[in-house]
Amino acid sequence: MKLGLVPLRIPSGWMVAYNNFLEISPYDFVDDTYKYAMELDEDILQMSNQYRKRILDLGWYPSFNPHGQYRIVLVELVDNESQSDKWTTPIVIFSSRDILTIKMTIDSLLEEVAEGRL
Fold first, then answer.
1. Closest by alpha carbon to 42, among 23, 18, 58, 25?
2. What separation in angstroms does the CA of 112 have from each of 28, 56, 81?
3. What tens digit of pLDDT does each residue of 77-97 get?
4. 76, 92 contact by CB (below 8 A)
5. Count of beta carbons in the 10 Å neighbourhood of residue 77
6. What is the pTM of this model?
7. Contact residues for 38 (Cβ-Cβ < 8 A; gap 6+)
8. What digits encode the pLDDT tens for the residues 44-67?
9. What values do phi and psi take at 66, rounded to 5?
10. Residue 106: is its pLDDT beyond 80?
11. What count of other Cβ atoms lies within 10 Å of the Cβ of residue 4?
12. Is there a contact between 73 and 57 (Cβ–Cβ < 8 Å)?
């Protein structure tokens, strides 16, 4: 059985760099025998909105760890070498182990950015 991607509502203006946000159950990840443990790393989903100058990033922290959780980070997008500084001062950080909560938070952040509220 092939896993599907978590369905997201992506407003116009967003570009997806990569998307590995799969419909799995993080609550079943209790030890190293979890069959989808390798899907839970720091690089799950990344999108950018050039017009609003924002990057949304989703990862699992710590990677491959059954005690980890999803983390959403929204940062300012800049066009120079100071981009790495923006990761240390994010606009939003949100963490949860609940996949539905993460999905709803991503949908909300994408919409808020697209409408210019974040």
1. 58
2. 32, 12, 26
3. 998 777 888 899 999 999 999
4. no
5. 15
6. 0.94
7. 64
8. 999 999 999 999 999 999 999 999
9. -65, -15
10. yes
11. 9
12. yes
- Give the angle subtended at the CA of 113 by the CAs of 58 and 69, to the nearest 5°: 20
**DSSP line for 35-93:** TTGGG-SS-SEEEEETTTTEEEEEEEESTT-TT-EEEEEEEE--SSTTHHHHHHS-SEE
Closest CA to 36 of 44, 46, 49, 25: 25
* Residue entry with tokens 């609940």: 98
Distance between CA atoms of residues 102 and 108, nearest Å: 10
Domain limits, the chain: 15-114
User: For residue 43, which phi and psi values (nearest 5 degrees)?
Assistant: -115, 80
Average pLDDT, the chain: 95
Structure tokens belonging to residue 30? 């209790």
Q: In the numeric block, which tokens belong to residue 82?
A: 């100071």
